[in-house]
Every structure is written in structure tokens, then in C-alpha cells.
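Reopening this one. Same input as before:
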Amino acid sequence: MDERARQALADLVVFGEQASRLVARGKEAWDTDEVNRLAGEAILHKAGEAVSRLERIDPDILNAHPEVNWRGIKGARNIVAHRYHAVDYAILWNALSDRLPHDIAAARSILAQDGPLV
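Same output, byte for byte:
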């Protein structure tokens, strides 16, 4: 795998780890603290950017790994970047707490199949 593609995947994993720490604060903290919700938006934005970068570098990786919801990650980015006035925070919470962990685990597996990071 191209080193730039590996870096984009590694970045996605980092953003997933950030999401995990945010989710660990709990749903009540999410619902009551605007800063947590804004952090969630930023994480999803960055994750979507990492997927877009990966798609430009090596679209075959996306095609070879349909177990990752690449389109959903990019879609979440588009919503928080361009439709910020229509963000549904319940949907973002579900993306961060339910779907993203699955996608990040799959991204880790893709990286592991390619060997350790240099």
C-alpha cells in the first residue's frame, strides 16, 4: 500500500480513537455540553476528509473493503461541513457511538494486513 494511503488510514484510526474518548464521556455529557457536540462534528469532519484523501490516493482500497462504510463517513463530513444548520445531534451520536467503532476496527485490520506502520 502506498505510504500516503497508509497515512490516511492511520489518520482515520486516530480520529476514531478521539471519537471513542468523546463517547466515553457518555450520552448525558453529549446532550448537555455544546462543546462535546462541536468536538463530535470536528471528528466526523476530519474522518470524512481522511476518507476523501484515501479515495483520491487509492480508490481501489475503498472498493476492496466494502466492510467499511466509506460513503457514510464522507456523508457525515458533508453534513457537518455544509449543512451545519441542519445537524441532528442524535444521528451524530449514533454515528460516533455505534457505526464509527466498527469502521475504525476494520480500518485497523486493513492496516495490519499491510504490515506495521513505518
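So the earlier flakiness isn't reproducible anymore. For the record, The chain has a mean pLDDT of 92.
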